[in-house]
């Protein structure tokens, strides 16, 4: 393909990482692909991040757009709402995006992260095809397409556990919607609904999922059910886009530790790159793990108080700091059976390790797909954003996990942690979850194979860029390259 495609995202790992995976797949097909990254939220480490990506993905070009601000003056308003500021700053980056794209030859299309949907206006100004990349699954996508046309009559926040029925989606308790939808109809709420309304504008939507995983939601979107009587963009299920972190150095100590453990014997706990829990909750988790008797690998992020500055964390890199957070003697009593690592573990590699038998997760979509592709059942402990929705879809729709009860309360008790670890690792229900997870792993691989549903969707996306179908041996070559 002679034309170039520009992918546009922002400087948050949960969105940047899957976009980079998409870029790698496009480049593997011979597409000239550039990832433009908004320096939002702006960070002094952003240039280093882009340099690491450039070194790790030599077939992809990366460009950091200069930081922009929608605020007057140079100083940030300390009282400004972070979400509103994020959306405003992304919109303020449009002129830099337009100037950059105009500097490139033969750009055919823009593929925009969901949160960068304001750049649909930039695509129109540039006269380019525009697609959205939805980094989550088809089920939340179906819900988000439908919410702007719903007329519930009351605020979602007043509906409690009442079930909401979205086309193609398992019924969802209203209280499991993202928190921003449960509050008053303020600027945050309006900005979120605006993001949902943008979903109807692009030529197509690429979703990081595969048809077998969410068949009802995929079918509903393809049939236009979430927005009856209105056009719905074409859906391309091109996932699972999952890959190991590149450029992170040698083998992590926890992988060596796992090498000595029996198959499917270890419970892995990790709550993502942005989540942390209070110190009291860390102690409850520790007590539950100790009582369960099972081996565990636990990535611990330093806790913050609910009202604390989230940038001010304890340094947990030293064992002494970890000991201060956990029950007295916990590390000594569980030494050999358990391993606590500070802040970060190579999650994809841990999940794919034969010793890993269960995953206690916050249900971020990247983590969910990483568990699916590794064939590991999940204990779902959602914390923010769309994670509660994902919990419903994983446990009720896909049946690949169980719920950590108390996720919506102040503290999950040690007894619940122990019970859910035992359920997944010891019970007949746990055995059935493992069998279902193993089948999901096989179906994820099949979706990406030659002739698989995601490979076909990816080729259809490439065809939509060209405006005509690939023919004969060209299409066979495309499918072969996409499956690599």
> Whole-number average pLDDT?
90
Taking the sheet with the most strands, its summary is:
7 strands, parallel
Tell me the strand order in the biggest sheet. Answer: 3-2-1-4-5-8-9
Work out the helix count: 19
**N→C terminal distance:** 17 Å
Computed structural class: alpha/beta
Q: What are the segments in which pLDDT stays under 50 over at least 5 consecutive residues?
A: 306-314, 468-479
User: Which overall shape is indicated by the principal axes computed on the Cα atoms?
Assistant: globular
Radius of gyration: 22 Å
How many beta strands in the DSSP annotation? 15
The helix content, as a percent range, equals 40-55%
Task: Report the portion of residues in β strands.
Answer: 5-15%
Notable traits:
alpha/beta, six-stranded parallel sheet, 484 residues
Describe the structure.
The chain is an alpha/beta fold. It is 42% helix and 15% strand. It is built from 19 helices and 15 strands. It has helices at residues 13-28, 46-56, 82-92, 94-102, 120-126, 138-146, 187-198, 215-222, 253-259, 279-292, 319-325, 330-333, 347-352, 365-374, 387-398, 414-426, 428-448, 453-466, 472-482, and strands at residues 4-10, 32-38, 61-65, 107-113, 129-134, 163-164, 172-173, 204-207, 234-237, 266-270, 295-300, 338-342, 356-361, 378-380, 401-403. The strands form 3 sheets. It has a 7-stranded parallel beta sheet, with helices on both faces. Strands 12-11-10-13-14-15 form a 6-stranded parallel beta sheet, with helices on both faces. Helix 14 crosses helix 17 (428-448), helix 16 packs across helix 17 and helix 18 crosses helix 19. It is globular and about 65 Å long.
């Amino acid at each position: 393909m002679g034309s170039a495609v520009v992918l546009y995202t922002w400087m948050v790992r949960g969105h940047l990482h899957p976009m980079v995976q998409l870029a790698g797949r496009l480049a593997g097909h011979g597409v000239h692909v550039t990832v433009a990254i908004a320096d939002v939220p702006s960070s002094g480490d952003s240039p280093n991040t882009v340099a690491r990506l450039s070194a790790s993905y030599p077939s992809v070009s990366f460009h950091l757009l200069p930081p922009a601000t929608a605020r007057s003056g140079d100083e940030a308003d300390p009282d400004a709402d972070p979400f509103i500021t994020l959306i405003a700053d992304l919109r303020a980056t449009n002129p830099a995006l337009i100037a950059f794209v105009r500097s490139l030859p033969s750009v055919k299309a823009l593929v925009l992260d969901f949160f960068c949907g304001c750049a649909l206006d930039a695509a129109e100004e540039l006269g380019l095809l525009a697609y959205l990349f939805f980094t989550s699954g088809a089920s939340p996508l179906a819900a988000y397409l439908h919410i702007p046309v719903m007329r519930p009559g009351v605020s979602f926040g007043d509906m409690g556990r009442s079930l909401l029925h979205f086309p193609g989606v398992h019924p969802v308790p209203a209280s499991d919607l993202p928190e921003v939808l449960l509050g008053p109809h303020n600027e945050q709420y309006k900005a979120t609904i605006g993001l949902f309304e943008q979903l109807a504008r692009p030529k197509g939507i690429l979703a990081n999922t595969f048809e077998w995983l969410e068949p009802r939601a995929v079918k509903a979107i393809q049939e236009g059910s979430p927005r009856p009587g209105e056009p719905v963009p074409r859906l391309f299920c091109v996932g699972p886009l999952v890959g190991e972190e590149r450029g992170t150095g040698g083998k992590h100590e926890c992988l060596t530790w796992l090498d000595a453990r029996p198959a499917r014997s270890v419970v892995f706990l990790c709550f993502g790159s942005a989540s942390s829990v209070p110190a009291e909750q860390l102690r409850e988790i520790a007590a539950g793990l100790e009582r369960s008797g099972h081996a565990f690998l636990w990535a611990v992020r330093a806790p913050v108080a609910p009202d604390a500055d989230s940038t001010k964390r304890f340094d947990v890199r030293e064992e002494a700091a970890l000991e201060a957070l956990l029950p007295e003697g916990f590390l000594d009593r569980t030494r050999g059976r358990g391993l606590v690592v500070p802040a970060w573990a190579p999650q994809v590699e841990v999940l794919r390790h034969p010793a890993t038998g269960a995953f206690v997760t916050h249900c971020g979509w990247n983590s969910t797909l990483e568990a699916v592709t590794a064939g590991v059942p999940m204990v779902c402990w959602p914390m923010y954003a769309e994670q509660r929705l994902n919990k419903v879809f994983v446990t009720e729709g896909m049946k690949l996990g169980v719920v950590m009860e108390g996720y919506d309360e102040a503290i999950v008790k040690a007894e619940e942690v122990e019970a859910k670890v035992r359920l997944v690792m010891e019970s007949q229900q746990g055995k059935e979850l493992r069998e279902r997870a193993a089948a999901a792993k096989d179906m994820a691989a099949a979706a990406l194979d030659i002739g698989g549903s995601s490979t076909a969707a990816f080729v259809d996306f490439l065809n939509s860029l060209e405006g005509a179908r690939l023919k004969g041996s060209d299409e066979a070559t495309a499918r072969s390259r996409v499956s690599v």
